[in-house]
Amino acid sequence: MLDFKSTVFVSRYRTLTNQRMFAMASKLEGKVAIVTGASSGIGEATAISLAAEGAKVIIAARRGERLEAVAKHITENGGQVLPVVADITDEVQVKNLIQKAHAEFGRVDILVNNAGISFPGRIENADPSNWRKMIDINVLALMYATHTVLPIFKAQKSGHIVNISSVAGRIARAGMAAYNVTKWGVNAFSEALRQEVYQDNIRVTIIEPGLVETEIDQHITDVVAKQEIAARRKAITPLQSEDIAAAILYAVTQPQHVNVNEILIRPTQQDR
Ligand code: NDP
Question: Is the torsion defined by CA of 263, 134, 186, 201 positive or negative?
Fold first, then answer.
């Protein structure tokens, strides 16, 4: 069963048969891409979009059934995919994921560090265990994956790391402090990383979405914050996951001498 997001994505190409859609595109032919958090939202749309351009994709998340549905969609449309169930807050599972991808396909060209969570809410009311969860997935998991993939990229003398940050990595906001910390961290890590690896022909891109309609709000535990963010989303036309996937595709399909370091994308109606 395709879920809603996949259906939306596919509907954009409804004038083509699915088979033709995947066969026509080939900007990433021969490339191997790992996408974390590919069981829903931005990661799912990105995996589908990279596969449609000819990349072999390794998709990771904890929900195996959802991953299988994404994998089925990709294979039914002529793409190549390897689903890997992993909790990437566990360093060992991250290593296994990347080693499995490398062993299966013989190389890794693109790592999209997308998996993430958000627990908005004011500091004084916060449950600090939610801060730890956010730091574990939004920051540390991304660092583990980067650390593991770098030797592969260095040996190949090429590779591209795409880190999904947020507008919250640039603009602080009351009620978002802890999430701001994690995404600010992603941005700082990414720029330092870029300076460490550019001489090895390795590219680093930060993607900074504004409000995107995904499942991310489902985990919010702070009732007031949940209402606030729902109201913010309702007041505007939010981005769709496919809008972010398109930006990622743009970054990873540029010629080797072009390093798209940062793309910040807001819905047109988002204030800040
Ligand atoms: P979703 O909730 O739809 O997707 C989050 C993904 O992360 C899921 O596939 C989830 O899979 C995965 N994930 C969460 N925890 C883990 C874990 N421990 N191990 C492995 N995978 C995990 O949200 P989005 O698509 O919106 O979020 C994707 C990224 O975009 C995040 O980094 C988020 O911070 C960022 N972002 C989102 C915005 C928005 O408005 N939606 C705005 C700006 C940035 P599973 O649960 O199956 O493990």
Answer: negative
